[in-house]
Each structure stands twice: as structure tokens, then as C-alpha cells.
Known about the structure:
Layout: H1 2-27, H2 30-58, H3 69-104, E1 109-113, E2 119-122, H4 124-130, H5 142-145, H6 149-157, E3 164-167, E4 175-183, E5 187-194, H7 196-232, H8 239-270, E6 278-281, H9 282-297, E7 303-308, E8 313-316, H10 318-334, E9 341-349, E10 352-359, H11 366-369, H12 383-387, H13 393-403, E11 407-413, E12 417-424
Parallel strand pairs: 7-9
Antiparallel strand pairs: 1-2, 1-5, 3-4, 4-5, 6-8, 9-10, 10-12, 11-12
Helix pairs in contact: 1-2, 7-8, 8-13, 9-10, 10-13
Amino acid sequence: MAKNSFSRVLGHVLLLVLFCLLLGWVLEQTAWVLVIGLGCYLAWTLRHMSRFYDWLSTHPNEPPPEARGVWGEIFDSIYHLQRRDSKMRSRLQAVIDRIQSSTSALRDAVVMIDSEGHLEWWNHAAERLLGLRTPDDSGQHVANLIRDPRFIEYFERGDFRDPLEIPAPIDLNVQLQYAITRYGPGDRLMVVRDVTRVYNLEQMRKDFVANVSHELRTPLTVVVGYLETLLDMDDELNPRWKRPLQQMQQQASRMQALLQDLLLLARLETSDNPSEEELVDVRPLLEHIRKDAEALSGERGHHITLKIEGNTRLHGIEGELRSAFSNLAFNAVKYTPDQGEVTLHWWSDDKGQHLSVIDNGVGIAPQHINRLTERFYRVDTSRASTTGGTGLGLAIVKHVLLRHQGRLQITSVPERGSTFSCHFPPNRAA
């Protein structure tokens, strides 16, 4: 269409030039007639350009002015484009209004944040949960309205894979969950949900487990003490009671280990003690764990090796790291056949510091891997009696790594072995 319009304009100009040349030849004033004709055409063009400029400057939303010739075609094209754009904007506005109406009806707060961190739009639930005010807070930085240091760190870090749970800024008794998603050129969509009920139930569960474990600890210690005393009385003990007492002692020891793991897990879930962190050298820690794993193996004859590469100094809590690493090493020994191989491999690179516990044991089917860190989850329930495990080891490992900003990676092939890897970020290195 643009090519045809240009051809028509060029044709009109050529016709005008030919007409002026013919008229000038008749009047014997060719040059003057040509100048006057082209001047009139130029004046006509400048007049329409001026009208076009005035329309753009003063009334761009109104229909363009009327004209004839090529300028009429231009104004008509603009008019049709204007109408099409108006219809499209109306449809888009209707969609936006529907989206805003639907999000306004949500019980969860929805907040749109631009690339600079300023608030652009929010629904009614955001006013109720976050205390935002319309329109006063529009354009304000989100950190000026939600001033909790944990939220500011979460927002500035930019890692939104996991949601953040903190008290509401207007009511500390209300627990909110913040989930942020990126969209567009750096913009963010924040969804805030009231999780107070779930949070309270979780706290009740944690308190119940901790209290019950603590209350059972003392009477169980007494029972174990009496059983040990009875078993030490070999001369006076009836031989018929020796085996039952030994089994009772074994099961009581398992219960003590279970209670110990429950208490440790409850402490990991409820405590927040970054002040206890120190600079830990994992080399002697892993060497000690390797010796303990060899003692656990005993007559089963596992080949346990330790490989250390790179920096071994890590910021953390030594007791918790020892518990996590030993759980992985002892599990590898328990679930690896006699004479099997277990390798503890520590290394560091530009992505952080890592520990892999590698075995050539029975392996784990793929459908079980995602659930291994759940409490009391077992791949094979029959293993409990043979290995003496509590079902809490990997849950403890998971929580220890979370407290150290780490993550657990599990890979396994049935009948070929498993690899449990702990990955710590670079900021944890000394």
C-alpha cells in the first residue's frame, strides 16, 4: 500500500510538472510557470503538514482533519488505525478490569512491584493483610512499607524459589507467607497468604513432640538402668530371663536413639541461633566420622575411604554438621552389603563447598527419592529391625543443611549404589 501511495504521489507531481511545462510553453514563460506550480504544490503540502502537526499537538485522540488527495488517504489511514487501536485498547482494558476484579476478590494479597521495587497495584486483601493504603502508598518502595529485616534480605537477595514466612507488619499474631514471582523486564508479582492456622498447628506439633520426647526420656533412662543392672547379675539371674532381658535392653536402646533424634529434630526446627556459628575445620570432623563408620562396620568389612580436596574451613555449627555428616556415612554402611565400598568425598569450587557420600549398596528406586527426607519414611519397612534406624536421619540432615543455607542432592541406581551430596554456598567458606 505504501508503494502504491508513493507511486500516486510521484505520478501527481509528474503530471503537475508536465502541465506547467505545457502551459509555460504556450505562454512562453516556462520557468515562471513551473516555479509557480511547484510553489503552489509545496504550499498545499505545507498547509496539510501544519494541520497534521496541530492535530497531533492538540487533539490526538479526536479524528484527524479532512483532506483531499494523498493527504486525504493519509488521514483516512490514520483514522482507521485510530479506530482499530481504540477497539483493541477497549478489549485490553476490559480484560484488565476483569483480572483486577477477580484478584480483588481473592483472600490472598496480590501486589505488583516494578523493577525498581516500587508498588504499582494491589488488591483489597493487601490493604487488610499488609496495611497498604490506596492511593497514598502507590509508588512507594516495598521496603519502606514492609520493614522486617528478614523480608528486606529475602527481597534484595532475589532468590524466590522458597517462600518466606514472617509475622504480618500490622499484627504480629498473624503469620504471613510471601511468595514472589518474576515477570516481564524485572517486574515482580508478590502473593501474600495468611498461614496463621497452619503455623499454629505446626508449632503445636513441634511442642508436642519436644515435650513428649523430653517426658519419656527420664523414665526410659530408669528402665535402661535397671535392665543393665539385671544383666550384670549373671550368677543370680535365671538363664531363662537372660534373652528376654537382652531383647528388652536392645529395644530400649532403640527407643533412646529415637527420642534423641526427635529432640534434636525439634531443636533444629524451633531454634534460631546464628550466634553459635563458628569456623569449623571439616577435615578432622570427617576423619573422626570415618573411624566411627569403620567401627560400625566391624566384622562386615566395608572399605571406607576419605578424599579431601580444596578448602575445608566452613562457617557453621560443628555439632549439627557432625550429626548430618555422620547420619549420611552410617546410612551408607548400614545399607551397603558386606565388603562393600563407601567413599566420603569433600571438595570445593567456585560454586561452594560439597560433601558426597558414595556407596555401592542396594540403591533406591526413583519413586522413593523425593520422600526420603520425610520423618519416619522408609523405602522398606523390614529394614527397621535389621538396621536399627529411627527413620529421622535424613530429616535431620535436611534441617541441618537448611540452617546452613545448604541443600541435599540424592542420586541412586537400584542394585548399583547411591550418592548423597551436601552443597554449601560460597559465602559459607572461610
